[in-house]
Amino acid sequence: MPLTLYVDSARWRAHQQHILEQFPGLVPVCKGNGYGFGHERLAAEAARLGASPLAVGTVYEAARARDFVSGDLLVLTPYQLTEEPVPLPTRVIRTVASVDAVGRLVGARVVIEVMSSMRRHGVTEEELPKLASLLSDVTLEGFAIHLPLDRTDGSSAVDEVITWMDRLRAARLPLHTMYVSHLRADEFEQLQRQFPQTRFRARIGTRLWLGDHDATHYRGTVLDVTRVAKGDRFGYRQQKVSGDGHLVVVAGGTSQGVGLEAPKAMHGLAPRAKGVARAGLATVNRNLSPFVWEGKQRWFAEPPHMQVSILYLPAESSAPVQGDEMVAHLRHTTTQPDRVVER
């Protein structure tokens, strides 16, 4: 019995089409776990949209994807001077973020990333004069800028892109294509109007595949239900049950990403207070599971196992039966469902 990702296919694809209309020429991103859908599934969806190249995270993802992607692949992680060689076809485009990297990739197709306010990686303004003499040795697919999601200083994403466009133009570098990330549709349109001779291409992953939250949901199948009384011992660590009720074994454990949570940036007092409360409960082995029953998220009885979780339901709750499914609020980018079912 599985942990299942259910997809309302018509709604999901209608959302993809809407994003494509907002961002003509978009580059679909498929990296990590394929946003919960898997790489092969998203590669097929990208082909259906007629979108190319398909952007992947690493050279290892590109090496695997070459077997089921016939078109171009764009590797988002920049080329590292010390990386081990991975055999890749010529249809793979490498991102580079340093002048030295451009010099090493003679004959390759490259996208040159510039240093944005992310401060993560990229060619700096001071390095631009060195690029011109190296471009004849590579096939330049364009420049790229990766922008932050939040701009807490009130700055403008459009202004940041314009600043870099001006810098590249002043350095007499070709500006036929600019790859961008994390722009709103109106910002993207504004840039395309302002620079009509440059083709802007939005690299989009989360917004494309997960932007309509109601198009997808996870459910875990109930595998077993056991009645327990207060004080009964259970589980690997033989803890005592806190009260009368039921232990529910549900499909979905750590191997599927259940119980794994990425750190979150918290803004404001209320989210911080909730975070402190959750941390306090965790110290006494009280951890809220992602599984929902009768409209409430239920508590883990103990930490999730590899492929199942054990939940505690108090006596006042009705018990599920074997084969029922529980809705699970799971993060797509950390979840590996057993199956994907279209509806």
List the topology elements.
Layout: E1 3-7, H1 9-22, E2 27-28, H2 39-49, E3 54-56, H3 59-65, E4 73-75, E5 92-96, H4 99-104, E6 109-113, H5 128-131, E7 139-146, H6 157-170, E8 177-181, H7 185-194, E9 199-204, H8 206-210, E10 216-228, E11 233-234, E12 239-240, E13 245-251, H9 269-282, E14 288-293, E15 296-300, E16 308-314, E17 325-328, E18 339-342
Describe the protein in words.
With 343 residues, the protein is an alpha/beta fold. Helix content is 25%, strand content 27%. The protein has 9 helices and 18 strands. It has helices at 9-22, 39-49, 59-65, 99-104, 128-131, 157-170, 185-194, 206-210, 269-282; strands at residues 3-7, 27-28, 54-56, 73-75, 92-96, 109-113, 139-146, 177-181, 199-204, 216-228, 233-234, 239-240, 245-251, 288-293, 296-300, 308-314, 325-328, 339-342. Strands 2-9-8-7-6-5-4-3 form an 8-stranded parallel sheet. Strands 10-13-16-15-14-17 form a 6-stranded antiparallel β-barrel. Strand 15 (296-300) and strand 16 (308-314) form a beta hairpin. Helix 6 (157-170) packs parallel to helix 7 (185-194). The two termini are 18 Å apart. Residues 272-284 have low confidence and may be disordered.
